[in-house]
């Protein structure tokens, strides 16, 4: 049995450490969670107090933009903050167009529904979405599909978990969208931001920590390039030595 099939204790420890770091990077960590929750929390708080859609929407959009500016000033990655801005902006546009404050939450809810279905469908198709997301982070790209079956199985389990959690969240939120008022929907939505996310991330960590270590395809490519360069140097050096020998032989004959 190869080390890929049965990793050593050191390999397992390294795999867990790599998994923790990659998940932290991919999902934004504590700061990313704050950036996800804060705009919606500000919106529902202001709307609960004064029932003014415009001020609540402007405040939510303003804090989203501010979070992006802070990341830019600190020269930090802005992908999580930018995604928050776009999500809030769509919500503001929907709510302003319809005049219904509950529509501020509708784009995010539809996105959650679509994402939950995407996790399930891509896994059924043999290309689990969580593997597509985390593959580049682990520097394995799509090598897990054909070269690391144990890892593919772990990605499938994690994707099913994400899909089930997101769809369960939608099963709670969409009835509230129709039957509850804006403040009730808003507070439930804020309450459901972090716990389901943490559960999904934890399950992903559990599945991947037990899986074989990722295959670093970038390191393989670098090694192949170095080997090719070494062969080229040897070939060039051999040709040069051969030419020099031929010249010396001609001189001796003359």
UniProtKB/TrEMBL annotation:
Annotated Basic and acidic residues bias: 226-235
InterPro entries recorded: MFS_trans_sf, UCP010219
Keywords on record: Membrane, Transmembrane, Transmembrane helix
Protein name: DUF3159 domain-containing protein
Chain intervals for the UniProt region annotation (Disordered): 226-254
Organism: Streptomyces vastus
Transmembrane segments: 53-74, 81-97, 117-138, 159-179, 185-208
Record flagged with keyword Transmembrane: yes
């Amino acid at each position: 049995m190869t080390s890929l099939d049965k990793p050593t204790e050191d390999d397992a420890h390294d795999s867990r450490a790599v998994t923790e770091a990659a998940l932290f990077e991919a999902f934004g960590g504590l700061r990313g969670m704050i950036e996800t929750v804060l705009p919606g929390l500000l919106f529902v708080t202001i709307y609960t107090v004064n029932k003014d859609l415009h001020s609540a929407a402007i405040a939510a959009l303003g804090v989203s933009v501010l979070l992006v500016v802070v990341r830019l000033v600190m020269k930090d990655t802005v992908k999580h903050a930018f995604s928050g801005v776009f999500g809030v902006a769509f919500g503001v546009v929907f709510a302003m167009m319809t005049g219904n404050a509950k529509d501020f939450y509708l784009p995010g809810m539809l996105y959650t529904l679509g994402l939950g279905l995407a996790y399930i469908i891509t896994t059924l198709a043999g290309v689990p979405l969580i593997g597509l997301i985390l593959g580049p982070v682990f520097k394995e790209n799509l090598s897990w599909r054909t070269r690391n079956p144990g890892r593919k199985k772990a990605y499938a389990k994690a994707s099913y978990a994400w899909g089930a959690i997101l769809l369960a969240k939608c099963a709670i939120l969409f009835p509230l969208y129709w039957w509850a008022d804006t403040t009730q929907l808003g507070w439930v939505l804020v309450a459901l931001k972090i716990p389901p996310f943490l559960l999904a991330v934890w399950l992903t960590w559990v599945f991947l920590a037990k899986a074989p270590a990722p295959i670093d395809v970038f390191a393989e490519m670098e090694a192949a390039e170095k080997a090719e360069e070494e062969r080229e140097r040897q070939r060039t050096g051999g040709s040069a030595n051969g030419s020099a020998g031929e010249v010396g032989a001609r001189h001796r004959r003359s």
